[in-house]
Amino acid sequence: MESYKKIILKTINEFEGGSLLHTVANDAGGTTRYGISQRAYPKIDLTKITQDEAIEIYKQDYYDKLKLEQVLNDSLRWKIFDIAVNMGVSRACKIVQEAIGVPVDGLIGSVTLTAINYSDAELLLKKIEKLQVYHYATICRANEVQYKFLKGWNRRAFSKWS
Known about the structure:
With 162 residues, the chain is mostly helical. The chain has helices at 3-15, 51-63, 74-87, 89-100, 110-117, 121-142, 150-158, and strands at 32-33, 36-37. 56% of the residues lie in helices and 2% in strands. The chain has a two-stranded antiparallel sheet with strand order 1-2. β1 (32-33) and β2 form a beta hairpin. α1 (3-15) crosses α3 (74-87) and α6 packs antiparallel against α7 (150-158).
C-alpha cells in the first residue's frame, strides 16, 4: 500500500468516523462520511462515496497541496496531514510554520519543507501539539458550544503516528 494511503486511512479511521454517515450537532462540517463533509463537497453524494474515492479526495485536496511526499519523517507527514483535515490546509501550514520559526504565510514552499526536514522531528511534533491545543482552546473560548469537542480534539493533538 502506498504510504499516503496509510496516512489517510489512519486519520479516517481514528478521527473521522470511518465509513459511517453521520451528523454531529454543532459540528461545522455538517454531515460527513469518511470525514468528507457535505458542506465542503456539496456535489458529492455521501451515501454513495467509497473509501477509495474519499482517499483520492484527501490525496488531491490535502496531501498533494501540502507537498507531503517531500516531508521525510512519517510522523511529521501524518501530523501535518491530520491537522489539515481537521483545521484546513492553510491553518495546518501556519501552525507548522510557527512551530519551526519560518515566515508564516499558510503555504508549504521550499523554505518550509527544508525547515521541516532539517528539524528535530520529536521537538517539532511537541511544538506543533502545543499550537494545536492552543488553537482548539481559542475556538472554545470564542464559542462555548464547541467545548463538547475539546476532549476529542486534544486526544487528536496528542495522537502519534504508529
